[in-house]
Amino acid sequence: MIEYRRFIYDWLTEDLGWEKSLAELGNILVLGLLFTIVLFAIYWVTRRAIITAFKAFSKRTETQFDDLLVKHGAPRLASLVVPVVLLNRSIPYLFFDYPRLESGFQTLLWVIFVFLIIFIFRSVLRTVNEFLKLTVRFRDKPIDSYIQVIMLVLWVLAFASILAIVANIEFIKFFTTLGAASAILLLIFKDTILGFVASIQVSINDTVRIGDWITMEKYGADGEVLQINLSTVMVQNFDNTITNLPTYALISDAYKNWRGMTDSGGRRIKRAIIIKSRSIRYLENKDLQGLQKISLITDYLKSKQEEINTFNEQNAIDKSVLINGRNLTNIGVFRKYLQEYVGSHSAINKEMMIMIRQLPPTSQGMPLEIYAFSSDKRWANYEYIMADIFDHAMAAVPYFDLEIFEFDTHFTSLNADS
Question: Where are the transmembrane segments (predicted)?
Answer without folding.
Answer: 25-45, 108-125, 146-165, 171-189
